[in-house]
Amino acid sequence: MDTRLVVTASFVAALVAGAIFAGGAVASDVTFTSGQDAFVAGVGFGGSFVGLVLLWFRNYVYGSALYTLSMVSTSWFVAYFFVVHDNPASVFAVTGSGRPAYAMGVAGLFVVTLIGSLVGGWVWYRSSPGFRTVLHGLVGTDRSS
């Protein structure tokens, strides 16, 4: 199977989770602060889309790196700003009838971007000898023998 299809499937799953997140945010009147919605749209979807386009143009090293880094940063951002951090967009601060949809959207977006990070990392590992060398150096495995 073409690895680009696997990455595309993870991107489509992120779009679905993002739609649930956005729908829940609208239904519960979430107040985003400090450009939180812009980060999720720009880095989370814009960055990963550019990475996906690069992958489809067979630029596996840069495409998978951009896709992975975009998904990792979005995963961290969603977990920190929408669950841990105390702000109006936190799942614990949101009220209204759309609260369950918003909480489900936050959880879904976190899980799907985490899976997207693993998928992108897998493609990056397979396509970049430099990334493999650095990763094996960090883990402490010797692949030279």
From TrEMBL:
The chain crosses the membrane at residues 38-57, 64-82, 102-125. Keywords: Membrane, Transmembrane, Transmembrane helix. This is Uncharacterized protein. It comes from Halovivax cerinus.
